Amino acid sequence: MKETIIKSTKYRRQYVALSDFRSRTIVAHGRDPKKVFAAALKRGTRRPVIVYVPAKDAVQIYHHLALPR
């Protein structure tokens, strides 16, 4: 199974904040994951999902950690 979440080359080698796991809406992006997370929170996203967009043809594996509510 191959699914591409971020199709734009604009975000390569950056961290991207999505509004949630079901959304493809990008609410923040940048090279520092802490700053991306903070920017997403500042824009009103309650629980942003941060993913790294790898360079072209790189394989990236994601793991979901359940955070306490």
Task: Walk me through this protein's architecture.
The model has no long low-confidence stretch (mean pLDDT 84). The termini are far apart. A hairpin with a 7-residue loop joins strand 1 and strand 2. The protein has one helix spanning 33-42; strands spanning 14-18, 26-30, 49-53. The chain has a three-stranded antiparallel β-sheet with strand order 2-1-3. The protein has 69 residues and is α+β, with helices and mostly antiparallel strands. The chain has a domain at 12-53.
Which key features would you list for this structure?
1 helix; globular; three-stranded antiparallel beta sheet; 69 residues; alpha+beta
Briefly say what this structure is.
By secondary structure, this protein is α+β, with helices and mostly antiparallel strands. It has a domain at 12-53. It is built from one helix and three strands.
Gyration radius from CA atoms, angstroms: 12 Å
The biggest beta sheet reads: 3 strands, antiparallel
Beta fraction: 15-25%
Name the strands of the widest sheet in spatial order.
2-1-3
Distance between the termini: 31 Å
Structural class of the helix and strand makeup?
A: alpha+beta
- Mean pLDDT reading: 84
What overall form do the CA principal axes indicate? globular
The SSE order reads EEHE
How many helix segments? Answer: 1
Number of strands: 3
Low-pLDDT sequence parts: none
Instruction: Estimate the helix proportion, in percent.
Output: 10-25%
